[in-house]
Inverse folding.
């Protein structure tokens, strides 16, 4: 999100999901779309039927790659090189939209210089993709009248995550594929309401609607609304910084809401150690997760079926969710838990409903300003929606008028992942999801039918590697990185290249995040979950 | 049309001939199934038309089965289109509902919807509201059969490859009521990988549809991957018709040729 915010001024999916049906070319990179976002994939399948070209770039040949006109299997962590190579070809073949660049963007020259100093051959070498394929990729995207980019965690969960995103933003601006229907740079958000959580300021540096805490005006506005003299202007901590803070005795208490870092965060053994160390650990969740088991206090929150309120989905659409059943057992509405605790700390909160809170959000958040419960009947509204009369915004940056003014090109050079393979750890390892489970399985592994589909973790490995290791399908293997080791069953498949292995991260018993690298992107502080070096041996 | 339907439901509720009526309600800008129990609570009643006629349909019979299992002694009303009524006939035959415990409120589909569905009989036998329109001659299966065999093969292979095994086709199907499902039997269908077993997963379901599918098309509407399931089941229905002269749901007291042994029953 930080990458898109820097390039365009707004860190969200630029276009609406339905617009994917109207495009001429779709470039998916780092997204297992058919499996993890089936309703986005529906639109992509429809687009293919209407004649749109599909290009997929991913180290693992996922389901939707089977439908691609061109599938590129680059090495994990080489996205910047691939994209720069692609843009080199676009510029050489005269496929750049010079008018769009001149009118609507800035810093193009610095960007161009970076590309001039790079060759397609270098890209080919780094990514292990042929020059011919990079050229075909560039032409298919660059020659399309309208082209859309779709990406997900395969792009962001890297030490170069922000640079990867900025490169995609460069690509869209270079070809003028932004600010028009059926184009754009479209990050698919993982959770139903992760967009909403970010919109609500669930980040260390902003209030709602991405109003910086460091900005005097926003600060003053919120202080006034909440009846206090002043609010802190310093930026808070990200997750890696919180963990470091616990280790240095600077952070004494941690309140975890709806997260399961013991399974989801890199270097899981270390995460566990840190959570055991913190003086007070409070976990608010709907099930007793492995993280909740470490807690001093567990606060039972409510599931989607027990709550009223709004969700904001991946295309910035704010929608109502309505309570279907009363909270089960001792659980309480999450907002009530927060309100109660605030009241006991001495800061009075007296909201009487989610709608009451929503009205405050609308009054303090320009992009939500025109949204009310009344207007959310039916399909909801896409922000920005600043006024009561505003119809909402299906796609951002219309006519090249970027949220930040002009679109900003960034000169990005390729840097390898923080950890690369060597003699001791000779395999690239990447992680992801499978169709039957979601994230750490807190919900899906409690479902009988989903647990039936896939009850345990497995490692995908190429037949060549399996043969070299003398191991059969379904057998156990020991996999270790510099941080930890696990024993898991294997699945032999040519979805992955020789030298690359893939493992889903849903399973606590075979927790692949014991192995992943906590090194993080310097700007977004997102860890490099998608690539690390491992060694394998027969268990 | 809705006024006639509302009057009919109101009458059934007020004279006590039904305990409740399963129909559709419009609430918060969405259409959803609803059990109406009081004659003065019929305000949200709707027929499932949002942008186009009948574009928000639900398997109301499926809802009815759930309710009927809970209240086996009571009579319930249900809103039916032609396809839903065909579904009831099949469900009577398969002992999932009892005819004397169900009262239908039948509505006819407009030509536009009948065309979109390629529906052979876009109206129920017992019609309460709407005008009967002509059945549509089915063309989809023929078009598919006219396709070159290798093209047809790759078409279906491609379609089945899109499946994400969400079971939406089964879960929305008003004819799927089994407590145990073959699609979840490991001896038939392997689990844990996508795409699902091609073509076993989809053909197993198609086989189970042969004497059940009433061609309502909810499977097509619900499939997130846009697999033309209905076309597949139309083909199995066509075979049943060619071989046995049987079309599921056309006669109230039908018998399935798959349940009979010996000479064909007299027509």
């Amino acid at each position: 999100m930080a990458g898109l915010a820097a390039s365009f001024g707004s860190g969200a999916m630029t276009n609406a999901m339905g617009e994917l049906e109207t495009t001429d070319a779709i470039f998916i990179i780092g997204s297992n779309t058919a499996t993890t976002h089936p309703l986005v994939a529906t639109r992509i399948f429809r687009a293919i039927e209407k004649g749109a070209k599909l290009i997929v770039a991913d180290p693992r040949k996922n389901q939707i790659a089977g439908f691609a006109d061109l599938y590129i299997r680059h090495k994990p962590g080489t996205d910047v090189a691939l994209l720069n190579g692609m843009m080199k070809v676009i510029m050489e073949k005269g496929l750049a939209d010079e008018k769009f660049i001149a009118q609507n963007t800035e810093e193009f020259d610095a960007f161009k210089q970076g590309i001039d100093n790079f060759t397609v051959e270098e890209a080919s070498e780094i990514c292990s993709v042929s020059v011919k394929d990079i050229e075909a990729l560039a032409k298919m995207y660059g020659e399309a009248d309208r082209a859309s980019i779709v990406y997900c965690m395969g792009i962001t969960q890297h030490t170069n995550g922000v640079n990867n995103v900025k490169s995609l933003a460069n690509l869209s601006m270079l070809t003028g594929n932004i600010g028009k229907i059926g184009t754009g740079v479209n990050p698919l958000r993982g959770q139903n309401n992760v967009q909403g959580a970010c919109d609500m300021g669930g980040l260390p540096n902003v209030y709602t609607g991405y109003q910086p805490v460091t900005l005097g005006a926003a600060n003053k506005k919120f202080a006034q609304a909440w009846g206090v003299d002043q609010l802190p202007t310093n930026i808070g901590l990200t997750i890696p910084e919180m963990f470091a803070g616990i280790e240095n005795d600077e952070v004494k208490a941690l309140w975890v809401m709806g997260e399961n870092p013991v399974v989801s965060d890199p270097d899981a053994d270390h995460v566990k150690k840190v959570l055991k160390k913190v003086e007070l650990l409070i976990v608010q969740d709907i099930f007793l997760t492995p993280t909740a088991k470490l807690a001093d206090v567990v606060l039972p929150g409510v599931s989607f079926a027990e709550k009223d309120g709004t969700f904001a989905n991946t295309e910035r659409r704010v929608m109502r969710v309505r309570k279907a059943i009363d909270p089960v057992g001792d659980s309480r509405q999450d907002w009530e838990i927060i309100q109660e605790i605030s009241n006991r700390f001495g800061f009075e909160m007296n909201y009487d409903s989610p709608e009451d809170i929503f009205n405050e959000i609308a009054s303090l958040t320009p992009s939500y300003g025109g949204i009310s419960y009344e207007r959310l009947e039916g399909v909801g509204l896409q922000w920005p929606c600043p006024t009561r009369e505003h119809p909402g915004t299906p796609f951002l940056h219309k006519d090249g008028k970027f949220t930040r003014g002009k679109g900003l090109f960034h000169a990005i050079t390729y840097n390898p992942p923080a950890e690369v393979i060597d003699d001791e750890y000779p395999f690239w390892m990447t992680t992801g999801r499978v169709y039957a489970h979601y994230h750490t399985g807190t919900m899906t592994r409690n479902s009988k039918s989903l647990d039936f589909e896939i009850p345990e973790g497995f490692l995908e490995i190429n037949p060549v590697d399996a043969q070299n290791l003398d191991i059969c399908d379904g057998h156990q293997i020991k996999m270790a990185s510099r941080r930890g080791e696990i024993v898991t069953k294997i699945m032999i498949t040519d979805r992955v290249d020789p030298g690359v292995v893939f493992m889903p991260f849903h399973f606590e018993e075979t927790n692949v995040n014991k192995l992943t690298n906590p090194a993080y992107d310097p700007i977004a502080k997102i860890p490099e979950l998608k690539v690390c070096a491992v060694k394998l041996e027969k268990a | 049309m809705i006024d006639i339907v509302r009057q009919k439901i109101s009458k059934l509720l007020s004279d006590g001939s039904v305990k409740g009526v399963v129909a559709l309600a419009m609430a918060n800008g969405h259409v959803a199934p609803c059990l109406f129990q009081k004659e003065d609570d019929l305000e949200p009643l709707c027929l499932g038309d949002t942008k186009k006629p009948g574009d928000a349909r639900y398997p109301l019979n499926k809802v009815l089965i759930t309710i009927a299992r809970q209240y086996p002694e009571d009579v319930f009303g249900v809103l039916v289109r032609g396809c839903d009524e065909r579904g009831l006939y099949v469900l009577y035959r398969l002992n999932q509902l009892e005819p004397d415990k169900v009262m239908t409120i039948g509505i006819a589909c407009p030509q536009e919807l009948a065309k979109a569905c390629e529906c052979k009989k876009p109206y129920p036998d017992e019609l309460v509201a709407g005008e009967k329109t002509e059945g549509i001659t089915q063309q989809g299966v023929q078009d598919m059969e006219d396709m070159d065999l290798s093209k047809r093969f790759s078409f279906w292979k491609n379609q089945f490859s899109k499946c994400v095994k969400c079971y939406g086709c089964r879960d929305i199907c008003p004819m799927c009521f089994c407590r145990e499902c073959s699609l979840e039997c490991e001896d038939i269908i392997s689990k844990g990988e996508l795409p699902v077993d091609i073509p076993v997963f989809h053909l197993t379901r198609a086989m189970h549809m042969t004497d059940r599918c009433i061609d309502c098309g909810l499977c097509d509407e619900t499939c997130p991957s846009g697999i033309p399931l209905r076309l597949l089941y139309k083909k199995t229905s066509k075979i049943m018709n060619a071989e046995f002269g049987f079309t599921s749901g056309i006669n109230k007291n039908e018998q399935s040729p798959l349940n009979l042994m010996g000479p064909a029953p007299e027509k």
In short: Chain A has 19 helices and 21 strands. Residues 171 and 193 of chain A are 28 Å apart (CA to CA). Chain A touches chain B through 25 residues (CB under 8 Å).
